[in-house]
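Late entry, written up from scratch paper. The run itself happened at the end of the previous shift, but nothing got recorded in the book at the time, so transcribing now.
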Amino acid sequence: MAQSAATPASLSPSAVRPLPVRAILPWAAFFGLLMLVMLYFVGAEQGATAVISGEGVHEWVHDGRHLLGFPCH
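Output as recorded:
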């Protein structure tokens, strides 16, 4: 069994093209918004600022809240 090694000629820099910002921007905005929503639910979803009534969301994110340093007791 002969193994073929990649030669420097096959890994030429012209084969790698940079991604245009227009292709990345919608995904970056989507994930940024998703992270902000998740940060809200972990950090602020309790008490007077609660969007969802009850303790369900608080109990689901309780350990993550402590891990990130948010007080909740």
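Helices lie at 21-43, 56-60, 62-67.
(Scratch paper discarded after transcription.)
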